[in-house]
Amino acid sequence: MSLVSIIVPCYNEKLTIRLLLDAIQRQSFPHESIEVIIADGLSTDGTRDEVNAFLQTNPGYNVRIVDNPKRIIPAALNRALEAAQGEYIIRLDAHCIPERDYVQRCVQALEDHLGDNVGGVWDIRPGDPSWVAQSISIAAGHRLGVGDARYRYTTEAGEVDTVPFGAFRRALVDELGAFDETLLTNEDYEFNARIRQINRKVWLDPTIRSVYFARRNYLDLARQYWRYGYWKWRMLRRYPATLRWRQALPPAFVASVIILALLSGWLPARVLLLAELAVYLVALALVGLESAIKHKKLFLAFGVPVAIAVMHFSWGAGFLWSILNTPNQQHGENK
User: In sequence order, what are the beta bridge partners of 124?
Assistant: First the structure.
């Protein structure tokens, strides 16, 4: 049976890395055909101690750590790829938990030639038990928050523009090249754009499932979506045809709010601004009410709208700032 290399970018993931390793250990795919390569950005929180503790209780399990001194995700993926020996590559994150049949279903989809990069659906969970974290997890899976990002909610298989994580043959990397280390996020979307450019398929299978832990507070959420927006523009400068409406709406909305606010001394602009914000707030309120009723938690009526607004404004502002900023900025951080 072909070897599967699971590659994991990691930095300061002490709280969740053991959950991932335990989930990999429970996979239905034969253990002797799995290797795990963790590309660690020189963690300072005891992440490596957790990995070593796992290995002590699971001797002989094929888990290796490689250094990622750049501490950025595409570099981590590339360092892991350099160490990987498998025919099949499966990318996972240190704060996710794949279902027991995750590896088996990924490999089967590739062997059935359903796609050249295949992935599944996130079951988004709160990062902690707080009402804020619970609200963020609901918002991160709602269509008002994420638009047509199908991997967050769909139940139908099909060809898509991107998938979370992704599973592909090593030969695909040899053909296309590795992940782009000049993009500090959106590296997976850029990789999938190259796949589609050569008329290959990115395939989403909702039976391939993993738990993904959302951000714990609004500040971390804002930072995450600012990065997404900022680096999305950098990626779109190379691949403008990949722009989707869900990516264009937040910056257009934020830009309209800023422009109308600057022109608010003019009565028609002030009226338009108030009307736009009123419609937006009503939409958020309806989503909050829907979430509170569906999940029987009153705090969601407030928490979910705030989370969605943070996502929209952070993404939009990051995107606009990237347009205005110099194109060669190289600073960033892990997801």
Answer: 212
Q: Dig out the tokens for 222 from the structure.
A: 């804002």
If we measure between CA atoms, which residue out of 189, 330, 208 comes closest to residue 246?
A: 189
Instruction: Give the tokens for residue 237.
Output: 């400068």
In this structure, what is the dihedral angle of CA atoms 232, 325, 10, 34, given to the nearest 10 degrees? Answer: 40
At 7, list the tokens: 């590659």
Which is it for the CA torsion 200, 205, 210, 213, positive or negative?
positive
**Long-range contacts of 62-66, Cβ-Cβ distance < 8 Å, separation of 24 or more:** 62/34, 62/35, 62/36, 63/21, 63/35, 63/36, 63/38, 64/35, 64/36, 64/37, 64/38, 65/38, 65/39, 65/40, 66/37, 66/38, 66/39, 66/40
Residue 42 near residue 124 (C-beta atoms within 8 A)? no
Q: How far apart are CA 259 and CA 167, in angstroms?
A: 43
pTM over 0.85: yes
Q: What is the pLDDT of residues 91-148, one digit of tens each?
A: 999 989 999 999 999 999 999 999 999 999 988 899 899 999 999 999 988 888 776 6
